[in-house]
Design a protein that fits this description.
It is a single chain. With about 230 residues, this protein is an alpha/beta fold. It has one domain: 3-Layer(aba) Sandwich (Rossmann fold), CATH 3.40.50. About 35% of the residues lie in helices and about 15% in strands. It has a five-stranded parallel sheet with strand order 1-2-3-5-4, sandwiched between helices. The radius of gyration is 16 Å and the shape is globular. It starts with a helix and ends in a 7-residue tail after the last strand. About 45% of the residues are buried.
Length: about 230
């Protein structure tokens, strides 16, 4: 496992080895800082503990453009960095959408938008039902995904059930089709979620948002990024 300084510095080089999905380069770049802070400073996910029932669960709902995700997994020793150069190939485990069967540490197969948050609600409920109150469930979604109706149901249910081990990280890079009247955070706040809006590139702001207690209710962290600056 790499140290904080050397690991983050390696990410651009690791991502550069993955070619062939350039149309999703901005989507990947918009997530890199959030992913790094989560895996480096927040989540209890270790290369030697990927099947530990008390591990934290990270779900990448924004599954298109997973280059940053793969790079972080490689930098943290969860997957072999030598796999990155061949991603997307016929014999590669690393597809343009993550596959939970093929890639160590990947909790869900994703890419079809709108599924990650409902699945995360189910995972949080399942852990609660089994009496496992330590693990966190963190799901990363894109602002465009909120156009999918399944998310509205999940947002309402999570708050009603008080799923305080659930965190949604919303990458707000202004890519939703219809836009959001007011602030995108209001979509969660009106249902009773704890809400924080941060600079999606500021590691300290992200860390504070991820570690601030929110007893009795789920939390949504809106990470605002600039699409043009992400290239």
């Amino acid at each position: 496992m790499t140290t904080t300084a050397t690991g983050y510095a390696r990410l651009p080089a690791l991502m550069a080895t993955m070619t062939g999905d350039e149309k999703h380069a901005l989507a990947a770049a918009s997530t890199v800082d959030v992913l790094w802070v989560l895996y480096d400073r927040v989540l209890n996910i270790r290369p030697d503990g990927l099947t530990d029932p008390d591990r934290d669960r990270f779900l990448l709902s924004k599954g298109h453009g997973p280059a940053a995700y793969y790079a972080v997994l490689a930098a943290k020793g969860i997957i072999d960095p030598s796999l990155l150069a061949g991603w997307g190939g016929r014999d590669s485990a690393l597809g343009y959408h993550p596959d939970r069967v093929l890639i160590p540490g990947v909790e869900i197969s994703s890419g079809s938008l709108g599924h990650g948050l409902p699945i995360a609600v189910g995972v949080a409920l399942g852990l609660r039902a089994r009496g496992r109150t330590t693990p966190r469930v963190v799901v990363l979604v894109g602002d465009g995904e909120l156009d999918e109706g399944s998310n509205s149901e999940a947002i309402a249910m999570a708050a009603r059930l008080g799923l305080d081990r659930l965190t949604v990280v919303l990458i707000d890079n202004d890519s939703s089709t219809h836009g959001w009247p007011g602030r995108i955070a209001d979509r969660f706040a009106v249902e009773g979620w704890a809400i924080t809006t941060v600079n999606g590139r500021d590691h300290d702001e992200l860390h504070t948002a991820f570690t601030t207690p929110h007893p009795g209710r789920p939390t949504a962290v809106v990470a605002v990024t600039n699409r043009k600056a992400a290239s």
